[in-house]
Amino acid sequence: MGLALCPAPHLGYVIAGRMVIVMADGTEHRYGAGDAITVDPPHDAYVEGDEVYVGIDVAPAPFGMSTSATSVLDAIGKTPLVELRRVVPAGCARVVVKVEGTNPTGSMKDRFALTAIDGAERSGVLRPGGTVVEYTGGSTGTSLALVCAARGYPIQIVTSDAFSKEKRDHMRALGADLILEPSDHLQITEDLVRRMIARAGGIARDEGAWWVDQLNNHDGVHGYEAMGDETWAQSGGRVDGFVQSVGTAHSFHGAVVALRRHNAGIHTVAVEPAESPVLSEGRTGGHRIEGIGIGFVPPLWDPADATEIATVRSDDAHAMARRLSREEGLFAGASSGANVVAAIRLAERLGPGATVATVLCDSGVKYLSTEVFDS
């Protein structure tokens, strides 16, 4: 009895009879009753002998799990999907969250940084020994600093005191050279973001560095398509709604593209700060949700990606981040809190039987000194 080549890793054991595993290269592995099986894809399996008295309890391993990594960069992605149990009211759809804080720097931005650097290397704009420069609120900069450390590139980061001290310290620890733009009373505003962009662009021109320019970097989207595919597989092939906050729009666009390949009718919600509802109302303002709401429409924003746009107040995002930590044991930042607030609203409308997925964008460790957790 033969089966088609299986594309997933498996583990299990033979209860009775004999089992033969044939790898794609033709190598055979034989197992008897009581033997444990751990198999990487792709492989075929069949019963040996006349009897079909074999019970094999084989369960899929966690999505994309491998036994070892040759580089820290191999640890990017394949993050857990966790169902919320306590913060979601009764009568709602199931709400699941992609825990992106388990990436090496504690942020989903590791996905962007790796694909952006890969793209620059492929195109030849970043060569061995070249310098990287970028503007960032901190998470993208930390992720870029990690990839640059692993690949041997010096990096200069333009950031601001509006973003957490933990992020600045983390970037420095990974070898980044920081240039700070002052903020207006720690508010994230359009003026601040535009000054950071101009400063990074000037450094790139003057020093001949490769400028990541995340707002216009199309390579970074591909890392988030993987996040969407992972979410679909880990949910058991059932995602009726997807909710994600918008900064550069990379993660929202990439995940939506992937999820719509699986479910063309998925309900998608883009989240922005209520104090700066640029996408929904065309109005800009200062807010306190790090990582989102840049104060103007990001160049990569595509309105067709969103079924609707939701706004969340900074205070409500902070409060939900604290609830996630204390009630669910999920330690994440304010943008994650905003995502969960908006996901619960959608879950209330979709009702039992549906599944809403959202993203915990990064770890709360990045915000310990901020008002989110410093109480």
Can you give me a brief rundown of this structure?
With 375 residues, the protein is an alpha/beta fold. It has helices at 109-123, 139-151, 165-173, 190-207, 221-234, 250-262, 278-281, 314-328, 334-350; strands at 10-14, 19-23, 28-31, 36-39, 43-47, 56-60, 81-83, 94-99, 132-135, 155-160, 177-181, 210-211, 241-245, 267-273, 308-312, 355-360. The strands form four sheets. The protein has a six-stranded mixed beta sheet with strand order 7-8-16-13-14-15, with helices on both faces. Strands 11-10-9-12 form a four-stranded parallel beta sheet, with helices on both faces. Strands 4-1-6 form a three-stranded antiparallel beta sheet, with no helix packed on it.
Describe the structure.
The chain has 9 helices and 16 strands. With 375 residues, it is an alpha/beta fold. The strands form 4 sheets. The chain has a 6-stranded mixed β-sheet, sandwiched between helices. It has a 4-stranded parallel β-sheet with strand order 11-10-9-12, with helices on both faces. Strand 13 (241-245), helix 6 and strand 14 (267-273) form a beta-alpha-beta unit. Mean pLDDT is 88; it is low at 49-62.
